[in-house]
Amino acid sequence: MSTLRVGAASLNQIPLAWDHNRNQIIKVINEARSLGVAILCCPELCITGYGCEDTFLSKSTLTKALQMLNEIVPHTKGIAVSVGLPLLYKKNIYNTACLIVDGVIQGFSAKQNLARSGVHYEPRWFTPWPSGEETNIEIEFHEGQTQLFPLGDLIFSLDIAQIPEAGKETNRETEKKSREEISNKKIKIGFEICEDAWVENRTGITLASRGVDLILNPSASHFAFGKSDFRKAFVCEGARRFGVGYVYANLLGNEAGRLIYDGDTIIATAEGLLACGPRFSFHDSVLTTAMIDLEHLKDFQIKNLQVKGSPNNGTSRPIQTQSQKPSSYYSPYYWEESPHLKEEEFTRAVALGLFDYLRKSKAQGFVLSLSGGADSSTCACLIYLMVQLAIQELGMGGFQQKLSAIETIASLSISDGEFKKKITQHLLFCLYQGTENNSLHTRRSAKELCAILNVSFAEIEIDHLIKAYCDALSPIIGRSLTWEKDNIALQNIQARVRSPSIWLLANLRKSLLICPSNRSEASVGYSTMDGDTSGGLCPLAGIDKNFIMHWLFWLQEVGIKGIGPLPILKEILKFPASAELKPLDLEQTDETDLMPYDWLDKIERWFVRDKLNPSEILTLLLEHYPEQDPLRLSAAVERFIKLWTQNQWKRERIAPSFHLDDESVDPKTWCRYPILSEGYSLELEEMKAKVRK
Fold it and tell me: Strand 214-218 relative to strand 245-249: parallel, antiparallel, unpaired?
């Protein structure tokens, strides 16, 4: 049998961090070579970083990317490697994967299908390459010296003997025999670059018709709940349908601020899934390898493809999906089999996002205005879990090295028995800013939570500041402010008075201020601009309040695999969520101010994600809640849409948030809506008329 070891590398890159990105690529190439990998696939645009935005249009970015490529090439001796970079050809920029074999550039495969929906705006920078077209591009790596390289929809035919690592095995006695067996063999390699595999008429179909043996898929596929299973499905389906080996490599971590990459690495053949790597790693890279039997692939192609050189449209072998995962992979990553996968994914994605945002922003820690309520408590717990998960994977020394730019962390002694406890104390400072409208319950809950999480805590009173503002304005308006006349204004001033203090503390500590607002609040504007929306990062703005409450109950009772529950949350969850901005005798709650959160969640999903009109939304609500008064449900739909329309300006100003699913309301990356509009007024009248009938 002739076998070939292939590898998929996930990399935690940074846009335009040239030395960092180059060194990461070289490091993983060296690691792959040491493991006997013959062909290595690195992620999409890994030289520049995927999230370079409009700097892709800068000539200096394109020039620097080629310079980095030239510096990487000498490090590919003995191995075949694909790396991603933008390439300028005839005034158009193409998203390409460069294949380098044993120190020689073989050519540039160009992406044919550009991601243009949701968070992706690739057509703004790149031009799709026409299927079936090839050309040559002249590149000047050294002054006055140019070379021609193939560019386009390429198939790379390699003599396996050209790759020194091919045929090597850990058992030296079998090495000579293995190398002799493959000395006269060729392998044909093609590329599906990320979106090329997600479209209906995927690029792999034509690659298969041209007789490829191996498809490499360098990707920058952002995290969303459950998305990893879809990736495994198209990798396995492509491998089986096309009769090929398939290597998939995704980016890792919070690369550029909003998007989190889970670092999926997947290798499959026509017979099923061979290997997957761990997701949400805190390491700089993850390398996954597997052996592919070339003769077996050829036999499969001959026996199972209906027409030689054509993709298999039959069902000779099942697609290997989640229920058929190899046990050799899943034992180390047991959390993937959790019955609470969404909760696990949410925790690990946000924890990694926070960790990378912290170190890449070069902040010295986090500051949080902790109210003792659900949202701010969730943020505190996620930062605590970030520390636990990172130390669990990196070890205390690795954790300290990763955050060595934080002076207080760098100065700690690992041998100190309190090292782990002191890390959380230094990384997160929580401030409770009390008023006469805050309950003893939330004050006590905030303090006790910080004690359990080992984070720094302090509290101050701000009633005198609120009174000073009100007293200063009373002569101007000619009366005192009252709750009967000035309800919203009195609520907002409390939230805004908290902002200067918490910003001052964040500045003094050179820390990142966390805004605890969630997506449900953003949808309906249930937040005070320049008050509780203050912050440099809003980690919950991509998730709804309904899920946050569910997650807190889960964390209190079950908790993340390997860490366990946080029973202290039971105290926070005893009472309904409340902004606590009204006098206590008014018994303010979020759901009284708005509507039940499960209603809000459904209306938002149908309105924002599914683009349904008010009547269609009401019809679905009536199906889900047949016991409810139609007039009450109609009023909820009307309230949501009016609040949504009125508060687009707030969503435009919210701090950067993490993208977690396909229901985002972030206008900068997902859901655009006019700041001024008529707001579905006609449609709402039609809906109400139907209800009255």
Answer: parallel
